[in-house]
C-alpha cells in the first residue's frame, strides 16, 4: 500500500464518516460526466463563467438553492461549507444539522458535507450536470476534500496561505502547509482518471487595502505548491481593488507571471485560469448602489479578461442573502456579460513594469530562503515578514506594511515593513500619495479608504 | 504611555483592531496589540506583563456584554496590581440595539473607567487623552 493510501485510511477512519469505498469512488470519478469538471468547462465554454456564493444546512434547502441558480442560468454552482466543519468540529455540525432538519430554522451557515456523506450528496451534486465549486476556509481540509471529490465536486478552493492568514489567529501555519500538500496530492491523483480536478486559490485575502504585489505573490506561490504536487488545472484569483486601472494592470501581470513561474519549475502542461471576485470590501447599505457596484465589477472583469467571475448580491451589507437575491445577481451578471462586446484593450506600461518588479523581487527573496523545500521557504518568508498581508488577524503575520489609496483610488504602499519592495518602486508608490499630512490624518485616510464604496 | 489592546471574545474583526493600533501609535502611545479573539484573562496577563497604563478592549459584534461582566471579579483577584490601570472599552457593545445612556453605566458597573458605545474612534481617543491628563495632574 502506498504511503498516501495509508495516510488516507487514517484520515477517513472517522466516526462521522461512512466507510469509504475507494474502488467505487474511483469508478465514479472515471465515469463522471465531463460537464461536472470546471476544467472541462473552461476549455469548451467560450465565455466568462458565472459563479455565485451560497450554502444551506439541509439537503432540501441546498437542492432548492441549486434549482434557483439553474433557472438563473448559472455556469458554476457553489457549495459553501458551514463554519463548524471548517474547524473540523463534525459533532457540532451534526447536532446543528439535526436541529435544522427538525425545525424551520437554519442552524448552520453552510452545507455540512461530511455529515451528509458522499453517497447522499452525490445525488444532488450530479443532478444538475454543472460544475460545483467547494468554498470552505478550512486549514485541515483533508477529509472534506476526499468527501467532496467522492460527491462529484471537482473544484476545490483555498490554500495553505489564503485560507489561513485572513481567517485564523493561531492555527499553525506549518501544519496548514502539510495538510494542503495532502489535498494537492489527492487532487492530482484523481485528475489522472478523467478531466483534471481544478484547484483555485483565494485571492481576496482580507479584502482590505491589500496591495497588488502581495496578492500576486501569494497567488503564484499557492499555484507553484499545487503544480509541484501534480495538479494540472489551477485558477489564480483576485478581487476588485477599487481602482479600475489597478485591476487591469493586476490581471495582466498576474497572468503573465503565472505562466513565467510555472515554466520556471518546468510545468508546461497545466491550464492556468484567472478568476475575478466582485467587490469584497464593505458594501453600501443602499441596494440600488450595491447593484451598481456589482454591475461595475462585471464590466471590470470583462476588461481584465477573467475566465470566471464570482458574484455578490445587493443584500451583501445586511447579512446572508436570500436565494432569490443570489439568483437575481447571476441573471444580471449574465445579462451584463452578454451586452459587453468589443471592449477596448487598456495597457498601462509603467504600472505593469513597477508591479512586475515588485512581485519578482519578493519572489526572488522567497526562493533565496535557505530552506530545502518550497513550502518551507514560503513558511519562513511569512514568518520573517518578507510576505506581509495588511489586516491579517494571524499572529504569524508581520503586520508592518501600511497602505493607502492615492487620488485615483489605487492602493499604494507607504510603509513596506520587511517586504523587499525595490527602492525605486517604493519611491514611485509613495510619490503617488500626499504624505505631507500628520499621522492622524493619514490614519483617517486609511479609515476612509476602507469604506470607499459605502 | 503603554496600552494593551485587542478585540474580546471570539470576535475576528481585525480591521478596526488594526486601526486602533495605528491611531494609538500616531498619538504616541506604546501599543501591545493582542489582536482579535482574545480572552479577558489574556488581557489582564498582558497588562501586568507589560506594566501597561491602559487596557483598551474593543468589540464589534456584541460579544462584550457576555465577556465583560467578570471584569470586577478578575480585578479583585489581582489585588492592587491593577489599581492604576485605566480600563477602557469601545465599539458596538451589545447584541441588537441599545442606547448609550443605558449601556455606559452598565459597563462602568462591570469595572470600566471609560465606555464608548458606537463612538467614533478619534473621539474616543481624544477622551482617553483628556482623561489621562486630568488624572495625572
From TrEMBL, chain A:
This is Coenzyme B12-dependent glutamate mutase GlmES, E (Epsilon) subunit. Keywords: Cobalamin, Cobalt, Isomerase. It comes from the Bacteria. It comes from Halarcobacter bivalviorum. One of its GO terms (molecular function) is cobalamin binding. Its EC number is 5.4.99.1. One of its GO terms (biological process) is anaerobic L-glutamate catabolic process.
Automatic annotation (TrEMBL), chain B:
Keywords: Isomerase. Signal peptide: none annotated. The keyword Flavoprotein does not apply. GO terms for molecular function: cobalamin binding; metal ion binding; methylaspartate mutase activity. Its EC number is 5.4.99.1. Residues 1-137 form the B12-binding domain. It holds the Pfam family B12-binding. This is Coenzyme B12-dependent glutamate mutase GlmES, S (Sigma) subunit. It comes from Halarcobacter bivalviorum.
Amino acid at each position: 500500500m502506498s504511503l498516501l493510501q495509508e495516510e488516507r485510511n487514517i484520515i477517513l477512519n472517522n466516526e462521522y464518516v461512512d466507510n469509504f469505498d475507494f474502488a467505487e469512488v474511483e469508478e465514479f470519478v472515471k465515469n463522471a460526466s465531463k460537464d461536472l469538471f470546471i476544467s472541462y468547462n473552461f476549455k469548451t465554454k467560450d465565455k466568462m463563467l458565472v459563479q455565485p456564493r451560497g450554502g444551506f444546512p439541509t439537503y432540501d434547502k441546498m437542492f432548492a438553492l441549486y434549482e434557483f441558480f439553474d433557472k438563473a442560468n448559472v455556469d458554476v454552482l457553489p457549495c459553501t461549507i458551514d463554519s463548524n466543519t471548517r474547524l473540523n468540529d463534525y459533532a457540532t455540525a451534526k447536532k446543528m444539522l439535526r436541529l435544522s432538519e427538525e425545525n424551520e430554522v437554519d442552524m448552520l451557515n453552510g452545507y455540512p458535507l461530511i455529515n451528509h456523506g458522499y453517497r447522499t450528496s452525490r445525488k444532488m451534486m450530479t443532478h444538475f450536470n454543472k460544475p460545483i465549486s467547494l468554498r470552505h476556509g478550512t486549514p485541515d481540509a483533508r477529509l472534506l476534500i476526499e468527501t467532496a471529490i467522492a460527491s462529484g465536486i471537482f473544484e476545490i478552493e483555498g490554500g495553505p496561505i489564503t485560507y489561513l492568514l485572513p481567517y485564523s489567529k493561531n492555527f499553525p501555519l506549518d501544519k496548514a502547509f502539510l495538510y494542503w500538500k495532502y489535498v494537492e496530492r489527492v487532487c492530482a491523483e484523481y485528475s489522472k482518471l478523467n478531466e483534471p480536478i481544478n484547484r483555485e486559490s483565494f485571492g481576496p485575502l482580507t479584502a482590505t487595502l491589500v496591495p497588488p504585489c502581495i496578492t500576486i505573490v501569494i497567488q503564484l506561490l499557492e499555484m507553484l505548491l499545487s503544480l509541484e504536487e501534480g495538479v494540472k488545472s489551477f485558477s489564480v484569483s483576485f478581487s476588485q481593488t477599487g481602482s479600475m486601472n489597478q485591476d487591469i494592470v493586476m490581471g495582466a501581470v498576474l497572468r503573465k507571471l503565472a505562466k513565467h513561474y510555472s515554466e520556471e519549475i518546468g510545468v508546461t502542461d497545466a491550464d492556468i485560469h484567472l478568476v475575478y471576485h466582485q467587490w469584497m470590501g464593505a458594501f453600501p447599505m443602499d441596494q440600488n448602489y450595491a447593484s451598481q457596484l456589482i454591475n461595475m465589477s462585471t464590466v471590470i472583469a470583462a476588461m481584465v479578461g477573467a475566465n470566471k467571475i464570482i458574484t455578490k448580491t445587493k443584500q451583501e451589507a445586511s447579512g446572508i442573502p436570500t436565494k432569490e437575491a443570489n439568483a437575481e445577481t447571476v441573471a444580471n451578471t449574465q445579462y451584463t456579460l452578454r451586452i459587453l462586446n468589443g471592449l477596448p484593450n487598456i495597457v498601462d506600461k509603467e504600472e505593469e513594469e513597477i508591479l512586475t518588479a515588485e512581485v519578482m523581487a519578493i519572489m526572488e527573496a522567497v526562493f533565496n530562503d535557505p530552506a530545502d523545500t518550497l513550502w518551507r521557504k514560503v513558511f519562513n518568508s511569512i514568518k520573517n515578514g518578507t510576505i506581509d498581508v495588511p489586516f491579517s488577524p494571524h499572529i504569524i503575520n508581520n503586520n508592518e506594511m501600511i497602505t493607502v489609496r492615492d487620488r485615483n483610488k489605487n492602493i499604494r504602499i507607504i510603509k513596506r515593513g520587511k517586504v523587499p519592495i525595490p527602492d525605486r518602486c517604493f519611491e514611485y508608490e509613495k510619490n503617488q500619495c500626499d504624505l505631507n499630512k500628520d499621522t492622524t490624518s493619514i490614519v483617517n485616510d486609511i479609515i476612509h479608504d476602507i469604506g470607499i464604496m459605502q | 504611555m503603554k496600552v494593551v489592546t485587542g478585540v474580546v471574545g471570539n470576535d475576528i474583526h481585525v480591521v478596526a483592531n488594526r486601526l486602533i493600533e495605528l491611531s494609538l501609535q500616531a498619538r504616541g502611545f506604546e501599543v501591545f496589540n493582542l489582536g482579535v479573539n482574545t480572552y479577558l484573562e489574556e488581557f489582564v496577563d498582558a497588562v501586568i506583563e507589560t506594566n501597561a497604563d491602559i487596557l483598551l478592549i474593543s468589540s464589534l459584534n456584541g460579544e462584550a456584554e457576555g465577556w465583560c461582566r467578570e471584569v470586577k471579579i478578575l480585578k479583585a483577584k489581582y489585588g492592587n496590581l491593577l489599581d492604576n490601570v485605566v480600563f477602557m472599552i469601545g465599539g458596538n457593545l451589545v447584541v441588537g440595539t441599545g442606547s448609550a445612556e443605558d449601556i455606559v453605566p452598565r459597563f462602568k458597573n462591570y469595572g470600566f473607567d471609560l465606555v464608548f458605545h458606537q463612538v467614533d474612534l478619534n473621539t474616543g481617543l481624544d477622551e482617553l487623552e483628556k482623561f489621562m491628563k486630568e488624572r495625572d495632574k
